[in-house]
Specification:
Number of domains: 2
Structural class: alpha+beta
Radius of gyration: 20 Å
Helix content: 40-55%
Oligomer: single chain
Low-confidence stretches: none
Number of strands: 9
CATH class of the largest domain: Alpha Beta
Number of helices: 10
Order of helices and strands: EEHHEHHHEEEHHHHEEHE
Mean pLDDT: 93
């Protein structure tokens, strides 16, 4: 057995902000992917098989508490898990690129009854319905999930988040492979745990000053970056990115490992690159944006960069 491939995702803009109704933009990242498979005796496969067993029992509980949400073919799922099914994935866990999202999409695709497929006319209602199902499924891994990562992985399309109950699949400007500018992933070299980071954010939300900063600065700059990116306004995008990077450095310090604070600041001061969080932060990948990739590579030569998109 070998299932279809599900890709990782990158939330270009909207981390934390989408909890409070900022805009967001999520794109599939085809370099990292996963698929359901059987026939492997590796330790990794055994570990994944055990995790699938636990996930299946969570889904059975969900079927009892929320029967109207989604129905699964548990007979087939149990038989496959007994047969050694595992999720074979190149997506690193704890890196903010949707490792659990790809798994959720794969399980829904294979076992959901009356599933919404990518081939039908994806109305807003259908997208919201999928997002709700995926959010409940992915909560097994994160405690609370928006459902966006699995949605992105399942559809393999860029998704524009206008607000929590207004999402649409969108197109983004074609990449300019000759262009000097790029979006890249920068590997922090350590894993970031989603739940504790979200916990810190929720604690900070109790503080009025933080809430005001989120609304007046963070969400404002995030929304502007989304508009610029979707419309291909590169010049304006970099102006807004600089502001966003600054706000993140000033107000989201716990989400940025200490050894990256100077590197972050250096990007803002030199304009060689701007860094932002990729997912919840704390480790994993950071996102970088540069108008001159060669220059950024030179300055960041001690780090591993992976290009995601060329301007």
């Amino acid at each position: 057995m070998k299932g279809p491939l599900f890709y990782s995702k990158i939330l270009l803009f909207g981390e934390y902000g989408i909890i409070k109704d900022s805009k967001g933009l999520s794109i599939p990242y085809n370099f990292l992917k996963g698929a359901l498979k059987t026939n492997s005796d590796s330790e990794k496969a055994k570990k994944s098989n055990q995790a699938l067993r636990e996930f299946a029992s969570y889904l059975k509980g969900l079927a009892i508490t929320e029967p109207e949400l989604v129905a699964f073919d548990f007979i087939a799922m149990d038989a496959d898990i007994e047969g050694g099914m595992y999720f074979d994935s190149s997506i690193p866990q704890g890196y903010g690129v949707g490792s659990s999202g790809a798994l959720v999409a794969a399980i829904y695709d294979k076992y959901a009854k009356d599933k919404i497929t990518v081939l039908e006319n994806l109305t807003r209602e259908k997208l919201l319905s999928l997002k709700a199902i995926f959010g409940k499924m992915e909560s097994f891994f994160h405690g609370k999930s928006s459902g966006l990562d699995p949605l992105n992985s399942y559809l393999s399309l860029p998704i524009l988040i206008n607000s929590q109950d207004n999402i649409e699949s969108t197109s983004i400007p074609s990449q300019n492979l000759e262009g000097k500018g790029a979006v890249f992933l920068l590997d922090s070299g350590s894993i970031g745990e989603t739940a504790p980071m979200v916990q810190i954010f929720m604690e900070q939300m109790k503080n009025e000053g933080f809430r005001n900063m989120l609304k007046d600065q963070f969400i404002k700059h995030t929304d502007a970056c989304v508009e610029d990116f979707v419309n291909g306004n590169v010049k304006s995008l970099f102006g807004n990115l600089k502001k966003l990077s600054h706000v993140v450095l000033d107000n989201f310090k716990p989400m940025i490992p200490a050894k990256f604070h100077d590197l972050w600041k250096q990007g803002i001061e030199t304009n060689d690159y701007y860094l932002k969080l990729c997912g919840s932060g704390g480790g994993g990948y950071f996102l970088g944006f540069t108008e001159d990739l060669e220059k950024a590579k030179e300055v960041l030569k001690d780090y591993k960069l992976e290009v995601v998109y060329n301007f």
